[in-house]
Amino acid sequence: MTVRLLVIGAGSGAGNNLIRSLRAGDPAFVVVGCHDDRFALKKSTADRNFLVPRATEPGFVAALRRIVETEKIDLVMPNTDIDVWAISRARRRIPCRLFLPRHAVVELCQDKYGLTVFLRARGVPVPRTYPVTSRAAIRKIYGRLRSGTRAWCRIRRGSGSRGAVPVASPQQAVNWIRFWEEMRGVPARAFTLAEYLPGRDFACQSVWKDGRLVLIKTCERISYFGGGSQPSGASSISALAKTVVEPRVAEVCVDAIRALDRRISGAFSVDLKENVAGVPCITEINVGRFITMMNMFDLTGKHNMALAYVRLALDEPLHIADVYDAVEDHYFVRDVDTVPGIFHADELFNGIGDARQRTAQ
Question: Domains of the chain (ranges plus CATH)?
């Protein structure tokens, strides 16, 4: 029987990348897409597409129900935190399979500060982090970090490094938060101040079923999309990344996800950075969805993670002997208005001549 999938956010980078991964895994899949933006939806590579309300609007779940029923959808696949939260909360009203952990896990992971407190209490490496109660409290909080001159200031909810910036003094943190209060209407209490992590930047993606780790992969972010125009110089969206074999990174992620629920199921994408001692610390867990550069995990190694996700969600048999599907030196290259490229290190310069000026000997 043909499997029919509904991809939320079709036409976005994450949506089209997910569709690319799904078709690479099984060309027989029928992929239906939906989006609340008709212009983005026009770029969708799905077989059929539907305009829906925003996930925050009352009609969103009803629209999904209509699509699921008319298109005979087997599985709904969200692509953003907002989508995950909305369908998780309404899971009993959506008449097809979802592959998500308990809603309490979704809520915990989507509060970065709450997640940090939870993981630290269970011995999982995380940066020292404190909530900002007011701008007047920032100097005292800054002193508690004991991290030298730098700290990391960010909004505790949301994605895409929203409101995130390194600060070199309490006054810089005050000014940054004041800007967001006055220009964007974000209150000071929405922010946290955290230990600045200077080391390597990792992403780890995994899929689980009933408490069992099925597949896990790791990569390192090297440069950032739009990083030059960001105050932080960084972003959660990589312009250049590479696959890496880093068992210690995988181990930290496994410990964190197991701590969330002994019967955990679904997809988990974890961001980590090394502290001054080189220990990878978890900065956030994107629960119930894949990250935008999922193609890197699906089109390298032995196993396609998006395909594994679908098989597990539909209770189809899936046996993977070595759950850490780690390969090295595959590079993910991305820029605006192009399909992301994935190349092995040995292929990077094939067909490219070097016309740079050489220094005379």
Answer: 4-98 (3.40.50.20), 128-195 (3.30.1490.20), 201-347 (3.30.470.20)
* Reported pTM: 0.92
SS3 label, residue 7: strand
Q: What are phi and psi of 328, to 5 degrees?
A: -110, 155
**147 pLDDT higher than 70:** no
Give CA–CA dist 39/109, Å, rounded: 30
CA–CA separation, 300 vs 76, rounded Å?
A: 24
SS3 labels along 32-83: EEEECCHHHHCCCCCCEEEECCCCCCCCHHHHHHHHHHHHCCCEEECCCHHH
What are the tokens at 361? 């000997």
Condensed to tens digits (0 to 9), the pLDDT of residues 183-209 reads 999 999 999 999 999 999 999 999 999
Query: C-alpha 108: how far from its chain's center?
Result: 15
**Which of 187, 186, 197, 196 lies closest to 137, judged by CA?**
187
